[in-house]
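Database export, one record per block. Field names are fixed; values are copied verbatim from the stored entry.
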Amino acid sequence: MLNAGAANLGRLPAAVPRVVGVETQTSAEHKELVAQFGGEYRFPAAERYLDDILVKLAQAGDTPNQSAYKVTILNTPVVNAFALPSGNLYVTRGLLALAGDASEAAAVMAHEIAHVTARHSALRAEREREAEVISKAAAVIQSKQKSEDVRASQRLSFAGFSRLQELEADAVGVRVIAKAGFDPYGASRFLAALGRSADLRAALYGKKHTADLDILATHPSTPDRIAKAIAAARQIAAPGVGARDRAGYLAAISGLAYGDDPNEGFVRGRKFTHPRLRFAFTAPEGFLLENSSEAVFGVKEHDDEALRLDSVRAPAGQTLEAYVESGWVDGLLRSTVRRVEINGLPAVVASARAGEWNFKLAVIQLGDELYRLIFAVRALNEDVERRFMTSAQSFRRLGWEETLDVRGLRVSVVTASAQDTPETLAARMVTPNRPLDYFLLLNGLEPQDRLTPGERYKLVTE
């Protein structure tokens, strides 16, 4: 969740020696990527496994004398990957959780390297230079905030390639992984998993756009693209040729963090907890929650209801009532603005109306932050009012001892017994929603598939 006022953690004492040097464009681009994706996630077993794959890809590539790429795992649940001409390759832990075996991970990395070797990145760099010119112009003729908005929007798409470039990278990637000894159908399987992941998210949360940098925004997965990847693999060999090493891959990612970084807030059922900012709240019955860098979003299945929780810095010298009436929300019904107390915290609740939508609002002050809960419904009635107030009144400050007991989710690997079914293993999953759907997705299974006794499968556990 967006943190407008996080504490300055981990500050070094003044006596610590500083390394002095000139920052290169490569190191600057590396820092930019790492910063946008939650920082670096250290997981030595997966890093070693992926680096071994990269050595094989380098030997099988068009420039075998070039030194192998080096992998950096990014600390985010979104699914994405990048390669830079410098030899840096980045994969998110969300991508590692989604991939089913070594050939799928190899296909993603070979695809990204293909963009570099085909000099697609040179065209991207040209667009980045154009974006910098745009942002500088915005700084001159508009406000600084607008300049930052333009720069951010350009940055969000800096890894985007054209459809033709994507297809070219797919074809090169399939050829390279096959030459490196991997199953060439790994590419099509991973593209299919991407499509299923997008379908599941759409079914859960609707087609809401968030600021998270998901691979589907820059690498669209379409049936036509999957078909072309399959066709490219068929030109090389029939299915069943080449290594998949599912067992080795699962061993390498066993224990990998899954989903939200708990220190940045996490969802368990209808409850959202943010240990670092020390608060928690619970959504109304029937809501599905999703945390993002922008806000916490919630939607009610099969109903026209939604919620959003975000935070802003409390304006100095302004009352909560004045803030609510300052134009922050359109359609405010001033007569409904009311001061309340929620679990010892000062708060204001109000109503607003815009078009076909009615809104219930709560602004809760916790320290120097204002937490804004917006509840949107088509029809406002007593039941809606009651459910909104129950949810708003669940907002509370966490005690220090509660912030210490933070357990993130992990990818666990289990061996199926003869009695196990997708339903029995899915019952052991700890996911915010639809555990069976996520079990099938993470293991590349269809609803009608049966488990193979002795085979290993991914679970999400605490």
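Remark 1: The first strand starts at residue 70 and ends at 74.
Remark 2: The chain has a mean pLDDT of 82.
End of record.
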